[in-house]
Protein 1
Amino acid sequence: MPSENDTKKPAASEKKTATAVKMASKQQEISVTEFFEKNKQILGFDSRSKSLLMGIKEAVDNSLDACEEAAILPDVDVTIDRLNDEDYHIVIEDNGPGIVHKMMPNVFGRLLYGSRFHALRQSRGQQGIGISATVMYGNITTGKPAHVESKIEGEDEVAWGMDIVIDTKANRPIVTNDKAFTWEGKEHGTRIAYTIKGRYITGKQSIFEYLRDTAIVNPHAQIVFRDPEGKRFTFERATDIMPPRPKEIKPHPEGMEIGDLMKYASNSAQKTMNTFLKNDFSRITDRLAKEILAKAKVKEDKKPADLTREEAIAILEAIKTAKIMAPPTDCLSPIGDHLIKKGLMHVLDGLRPEYYATPVTRSPKAVNGNPFVVEAGIVYGGDIPSDGQVQILRFANRVPLLYQQGACAITKAISEMDWRRYGLEQRGGKGIPYGPAIILVHVASTKVPFTSEGKEAVAGFPELQSEIGLALRLCARNLKSHLNKMERKKKTHAKFEIVQEILPDMAQKAADHLGKPVPNLDRTITKIMNVVWVEPSVEKKGKNLRVIKYTVYNYTNTKRTLRLHAQVPRESLNLTLYSNPFFLDINDEGKANWEIPDIEPSMHKELMFELSGDMADTFDADDIYFSGLNPVIVMGAELLPGDWGIKGMEIVESDDDFVNEDEEEETEVEELDDE
Amino acid sequence: MPSENDTKKPAASEKKTATAVKMASKQQEISVTEFFEKNKQILGFDSRSKSLLMGIKEAVDNSLDACEEAAILPDVDVTIDRLNDEDYHIVIEDNGPGIVHKMMPNVFGRLLYGSRFHALRQSRGQQGIGISATVMYGNITTGKPAHVESKIEGEDEVAWGMDIVIDTKANRPIVTNDKAFTWEGKEHGTRIAYTIKGRYITGKQSIFEYLRDTAIVNPHAQIVFRDPEGKRFTFERATDIMPPRPKEIKPHPEGMEIGDLMKYASNSAQKTMNTFLKNDFSRITDRLAKEILAKAKVKEDKKPADLTREEAIAILEAIKTAKIMAPPTDCLSPIGDHLIKKGLMHVLDGLRPEYYATPVTRSPKAVNGNPFVVEAGIVYGGDIPSDGQVQILRFANRVPLLYQQGACAITKAISEMDWRRYGLEQRGGKGIPYGPAIILVHVASTKVPFTSEGKEAVAGFPELQSEIGLALRLCARNLKSHLNKMERKKKTHAKFEIVQEILPDMAQKAADHLGKPVPNLDRTITKIMNVVWVEPSVEKKGKNLRVIKYTVYNYTNTKRTLRLHAQVPRESLNLTLYSNPFFLDINDEGKANWEIPDIEPSMHKELMFELSGDMADTFDADDIYFSGLNPVIVMGAELLPGDWGIKGMEIVESDDDFVNEDEEEETEVEELDDE
């Protein structure tokens, strides 16, 4: 290698050689800790207010994960004290299973260290970065160590506490004051206390908002929060039922890359390719393994470690054409319709919307071998402010996402949809729509593809993006059909009122003119209208009581019997439902059925019941279905759809010229499904 | 530690103890390579089309960095071949200084390894991740190794080539076929060839767009691109002058955290606190070091390694109140006004805009010890489509940012500004504005705070965000004052035309009526108008020739002499400027001065010159200034501002009631500066 003293070469080339050599001398390893120390924004520690939130988020997410892993109903306490201008002291304590003494330093004091990274199962923390990063930023900004304590279950076990500082050059914990002590309070659990520079804010993107939204989608958790002014907020546990614990699964072969397959093969404990495919992947049966290997021309008893690149390519091709079942869903824990509605309600904070669109939970898909599920919900109208952009609530694996909205696949999916077709304002059919609506989207996956280690936004993988789009469209279609219904109703109502007002008026004038008595017009009106009219009404009685009334008018020439159907929130039911004479039955989902018999021409009958509790408002009285009559003569209710699933309920065939107006959109959504 | 066989405890607690122990057994280190393998979206390798772009971007950015480091005018060749459906073979070759043989494996085959991470100096690649990640995704998606070759300068040097695969478990390169060979073609340089799964797209967010935008802001580079169809595009070098090489600096004390200070102190080679502050930081003089230490009550001869936390806090407090110069700018390489205009012009692709707002380059600030500079430019109106959102061009350290627009501090700054005040449409004064405009923003820093390792968006640090906002406001104010000028001109023009049309008309009618001859109205019009009128016009002569004409009408009672001033693009000048009889002089910035003497009442004179070349269109004829007359009688030109900086040019004092209408906004911007 030439040195700078090599005098044979011209000056210019000497200089250039020097560059390569000079650069070589600067080439060096960058410690991952140093990398994040200098790029703290990547972990979400950019502004002071965000840093304060990030630390708490990482700790609370870990607490919830640990409790769920041990099937413990989580109790999490968050306490913030302001020491001075920018220094805050934070304590987060849980009742989780605790952390084994010797693992504590690495869990809290080493980046890229954890238990959930390699597990294919829905959890909040997966990177092994968050809590150590919090400890590191506490260290960097205040120079103080973090103090962690943990007690694992068992009477004989003592609790351990220690101070931790991270050596950023080596990415290793430096532990001091490692001591056993007697744990007081909860039976077991983990407590982390640290000092960090921050700024405490309220309102949007605040710690309060994060904890509230966390409580909404984790109703099995109780969260107690003491803010820097000493105010205590308790987010009560809403249910004692743990969500089903997500099961760990094997990778799904869908969307696997050749490098993944070759790595799995070379690391496999299996002796043959057949058993490798069968046992190391989910959803590959013996029959499928045989089929794939035959198609790829790979011997069944070949050792996986001997797999060549060409064979791997052939196997991937064979997998593409094989019919493999969708990934299992028990590795995931979706929020569910009910909680989505409830969540939206909480966010409304007492405001009364016009309509809750039925939340949509899509069936699972996979991206890069990781199953995922998308859920969406929309609430519309009423008291929701209508002058700004719609509010977007984003969740990933039951964690609220408060920052980086613009970077998120959820926002992108919302922006790329033409909401004008669904009744919202949107310039040019692109961008976040305007109007009185709140849109909630939850992405649950064994590995949520976040755009950065800060876990603030979901990356726009095409498969994921398109699933979010579909969930939104289905939900929006729901909204649109409500808005259509309202529009139709308004029109029919207008016609109805005209007939009822003008006819008697005309009759009156004619009678006056002729000097004759005013004739009874009921039958005339009936003849003109020729409808069975269902008129819903909701009366508010106190904060949490609603009186629901359906009046059924028979404006036809013959006696009519009508069945009504509605899905009511089960927990809001009270005796009035069961005691109503028209009541037939109700199933577990809250699908209720009534029969209103023998309404004479020009007469009406009333169906009435009450709903109570805080879910009462999620019931949409306009969401009423009928059966037993030809749809052309029924107004104010929709024909019961075929999938209502009630045994023995006889559905009248619809006329040929009766067209479901949602049909067209349905087709569009189905087409999108195939994209 | 209790085992699962410990029978003394109840079943429940046994299970819970088991959880902590079970979890402990799963705790493990996560290799950084494995982390990114499973989170490829963080590096930008999510969709196939984006992956293809990312790899090329990382390689080209490295080539440009290396060439600049060695002061070589860059020649970069990019070749893409499509092997089959999704497999692409990519070759990127440069004429850079090359890479020393023994460093090649680590540079291309190890994540978090590089030469620029620790250097405080503007460069494109800093993380030591990008190119190794590209090699890794080539490996993973196609199973093929990357092939790299390099030849360093020097006749005696042989070139070396090798195949590289990354061991993702160990984050180490696995090298095969390491061979010396004879380099052909360029004198020295580096060539990387790899196969990767991708999708080749054209148009928005394409490789072509990235290379074009790169060429625009790196006019000293020549880039040759061969697309998968064999089409060759050459982005010619526009200048042989290298941008000044950014100098490496020491950290600036502004915004330093206590952890940083203590780390610097403990790693310092300096013997005393005084020399430590003076020599390890930029902008700390001996006087300042003494002042800071005195204020913090730390002895000057204390050993830096002995600095306590309390002393560090005191020093940081003292630094806050000390008057430390802004960071040096020679570590940065801004694009500059001229290239910003040129860049905007290229993007317009032949469309003719109405107005180029003068680009703004802010003075440097620091965030976390890293100096940064923000530049902004706006082009408006004319042929630019006016029905959609404005187009945003984002650059960081001379690299175009094509993805993650929604996540970027630049977009956020644009969205949070009320553009309605500056003549663009924007609902509610928030969000990306609509209208015929293109907005360019460049952030240059010794360390650009990207939101993720994919380097697609700039994080929203408050200091940075506010600087971007200020640059945009200044630029927009410029636009607004142009729009105001146009509006005023239109109005005055209308008045002018009325006087010129109606008066003669009235005179004609009066004369007809009285049977007398029509009087000469010139003096009457002059009396009514009492202005000196400057009327600019631009005539297009062929693709690149513009004839600029200023007609100066004297509608006052006395003979007038007027000076005109305009800034013209120097490279567009031709002899017509110098040969014009009214021409006085022109300076290096293109600020030209004319004097139009002795215009008699009711007479006019014409100033005419030509501009040629592709920058001719960036000249705004309406941007014309005058001096030598009282501003209340001049229409169609603005009073020459005080900072025009022309020696010996006599400026007439403005009347007391003459108010600069930009003054109010100026104040607002200044106030923002103090935020």
Protein 2
Amino acid sequence: MKALTIEKVGSPVRLTEVDMPVKREGHSIVKLKASALNHRDVWITKGMYPGIKEGAILGSDGVGVLDGRNVILNPGLRWGENEAVQADDFEVLGMPVDGTFAEYISIPNEYIYDQPEHLSIEQAAALPLAGLTAYRVLMSRCQTKSTDKVLVTGTGGGVALFAVQFAVALGCDVYVTSRSEEKIAKAVALGAKGGYNYKDETWYKEVETNFDVIIDSAGGASFQHLIKICKPGARIGFYGATLGKYQNLNPQLLFWRQISILGSTMGSDQDFRNMLAFVDNHKIKPIVDSVFSLEEGSRAFERMEAGTQFGKIVLKH
Amino acid sequence: MKALTIEKVGSPVRLTEVDMPVKREGHSIVKLKASALNHRDVWITKGMYPGIKEGAILGSDGVGVLDGRNVILNPGLRWGENEAVQADDFEVLGMPVDGTFAEYISIPNEYIYDQPEHLSIEQAAALPLAGLTAYRVLMSRCQTKSTDKVLVTGTGGGVALFAVQFAVALGCDVYVTSRSEEKIAKAVALGAKGGYNYKDETWYKEVETNFDVIIDSAGGASFQHLIKICKPGARIGFYGATLGKYQNLNPQLLFWRQISILGSTMGSDQDFRNMLAFVDNHKIKPIVDSVFSLEEGSRAFERMEAGTQFGKIVLKH
């Protein structure tokens, strides 16, 4: 079968002919119809990930068909029993274990779910990893309620957009940040109330101090300003930090105002089930930025690297 | 009546003759038998607190007698309905509202509780503010369970010692940090399993990465090391930051390991009730460092400033 593999760290992904997966006890072979890219996939090709196994099939997001059922895969393997944190042997689908950028995958049955019926194949492929990550940080970690005012930084990325969509569906007043006016406008079209352009580095000075929940993946030196626009009792959830370490955080602003800073990554099996049910209940449709074929895989990776996408980059198999 | 008041910012507290408090609707006049110092009192005399009202009676911790009952006062006034955070008009007893370093106090009835019977007057006076703060950060914010391994930094201070005692009573394995071997030994005598001397600035390098809960009030540049000795899923609760801003926090260590950094201050009425019940159930006895008379008030303040105390500095009226 055909698959996108990491041939060598530092080289683009390559479409190769690989052996069909072998069916193992407790696994099923799913015929994959579509998949989607995550930053993780790009980082792996660049060697920015621990334990890279050359020759592995990449891809964490996958939807396909099994015995005539449309199915969607939970990419979080072996979370374990503790809802608070993944087990030591937790793993994300796609390197080292073979992933979804292929015609078929062998996967343990417990990670196979019915695909929400209101979604196209492309929309469904966009959902798993980013939807799971957004759901956990927004709902399980920050315990966001309908009355909360929510800020999602860096709108445009997969997780950030799901956080916007989920919070809007909950009934929250949602705001975004971006350095692109176009992305802010698109977020508003999805139901956000407005946005702040952080090209102006003092953007936060214009913002009222009244966010109950902030979802961030930028971190870095500007994280300190998020604390200033929090309401007392606020929760700041974060699932990444592309700008690096936090600096100059003022503890007085945090402890006197009972603020929580909550690290989050991926999600438990329960989070995945809850996320699917939430998407189904609210008929949320993931935003697809663009669709490529498996053969165009390296172009899809280039688009991800460019960082101009709005929504998920999907591969149709 | 006699009272310790702040005559002028920058001057020591002074024992003065003031008017008896007037009984107001919904208030009672409690005859105070003992009180205790908190850092807050010292900071107020130094002008390191907002809204200082000269002439006010200081003191947040108080026990006394009302209609023959031994009573203990909740120093957290007007917390409000939201357990997550205090209301905007929340206030701590003792400046601007007249506090407990006096012969009598007029206080709303809802802040008056029966004193736990197993406590001496001095022990009971040591409990309110520090016990409440420790209870909230350890229990309500960090949700500490008996199976958690707990580190309390800077043992010796009132809140830190209550955090040690409460966690020991819960059944946790508790460790402390201090720059005094004597204080570490005293914490071990209270049931801690051991301690680390942070005079050695690389103390954290010798520590296993396995704390479920860390209670901190130092903050500063060394806060970053606390993250490194956390177990995945850990909660770091903090109620102060004597060493200032957090620097160089590594977000990857936080989000991948689902760590929570939880600011906390004082506690709700519910926290106070739960704290009293917990102290009563476990027959916890607050640690009294020293006892002064009201007349010796300025000496008590000097001892607090010196920072060598182990436990609470009590005033017996």
